[in-house]
Amino acid sequence: MSGLLIVTGASAGIGAATARMAAFSGWSRIVVHYGQDKQGAEETAAVVESMGGQAYLFQADVSKPKAIARMFEKLSDIKPGRVGLVNNAGIVGKNASLADLTPERVEKVFAVNVFGAIEVARQAVGLMRGWGAGGAIVNVSSAAARLGAPNMYVDYAASKGAIDTLTLGLADELAPEGIRVNAIRPGLIATAIHAKGGVPDRLEKIGHTPPMGRPGTPEECAEAILWLLSERASYVTRSILDVAGGR
Ligand code: NAD
C-alpha cells in the first residue's frame, strides 16, 4: 500500500501502536504526530524506520488550529499519495462529577477531542483533494460515548459522542469522493490515559468487568484501525466499530 498515513497522538498508547503496526502492514510513509512527548514520538518513529518505513515527526497541539495548519502546510511538500488519517489524539480530565466540571476543563476537553479532530479532518481532506489520490479516515471515539461515564468524565463521554456523530456526517459527505470515514470505540484499553485521568489503578480495579474479562491492548485497537483504513474494508464506511471486549 503506497501512501501517507497520518496518526495524531502517535507518541503513546493506541496512536503509537497504530503507527508501529502500520509499518508492519505495508504503510511505507507514516506521519508520527505528537503534542508534547517528543521522546515517545521518536521511539515510535524509530520502530517505523526499523521496519523500512519512512517516519515524519511533527509536533502540533491539536487544540490550536494554527498549529494544525502549519503541520499540514509542511505535509503538502511531501510526495503525493493516498492519505490515511487516524484522528486519535485525545485527553480525559480527572475523575469528577458534574459539580467539578469547570467551564475551563470542559473547554479543554472539547478543544482537543472535538475541535481538534474536526480541524485535523478538515486539513487532511484538503490534502486528499489536493493530491487527488483519495483516502480514508478513522476517528478514535470511545465506549464512553455509549456509556456516558457518570461520576467519571461526562464531558469526555460527550466529546466522544460528538466524534461518533462527526463520523456519520463526514462519511456521508465524503462518500461521493471515495473517501471512507469510520470510527472505533475502544473500551478499557491498557494505556497511560487512565493515570493521566488521575486513576492509575483503574484497570486493576475494573479491567475484569468487560464480558471478555480483561482490558484490551493498544495493538488490538490498532488492528481494527488498520483494517478500517485498508482496501480490505473497501465497502465499509459510516461504521463505528466497538473494540471493547463486549463492554
Ligand atoms: P494516551 O494518553 O496514551 O495517548 C493520547 C495521545 O494523544 C498522546 O500521544 C498525546 O500526546 C496525544 N495528545 C493529547 N493531547 C494532545 C494535544 N493537545 N495535541 C496533540 N496531541 C495530544 O491515551 P490512549 O489511550 O492511547 O488514547 C488515544 C485515544 O483513544 C484517545 O482519543 C482516547 O480518548 C481514546 N480512548 C482510549 C481508551 C483507553 O481506555 N485507553 C478508551 C477509549 C478511547
UniProtKB/TrEMBL annotation:
<dbReference type="InterPro" id="IPR020904">
    <property type="entry name" value="Sc_DH/Rdtase_CS"/>
</dbReference>
<dbReference type="Pfam" id="PF13561">
    <property type="entry name" value="adh_short_C2"/>
</dbReference>
<comment type="similarity">
    <text>Belongs to the short-chain dehydrogenases/reductases (SDR) family.</text>
</comment>
<dbReference type="InterPro" id="IPR036291">
    <property type="entry name" value="NAD(P)-bd_dom_sf"/>
</dbReference>
<protein>
    <submittedName>
        <fullName>SDR family oxidoreductase</fullName>
    </submittedName>
</protein>
<keyword id="KW-0560">Oxidoreductase</keyword>
<dbReference type="InterPro" id="IPR002347">
    <property type="entry name" value="SDR_fam"/>
</dbReference>
<dbReference type="GO" id="GO:0016491">
    <property type="term" value="F:oxidoreductase activity"/>
</dbReference>
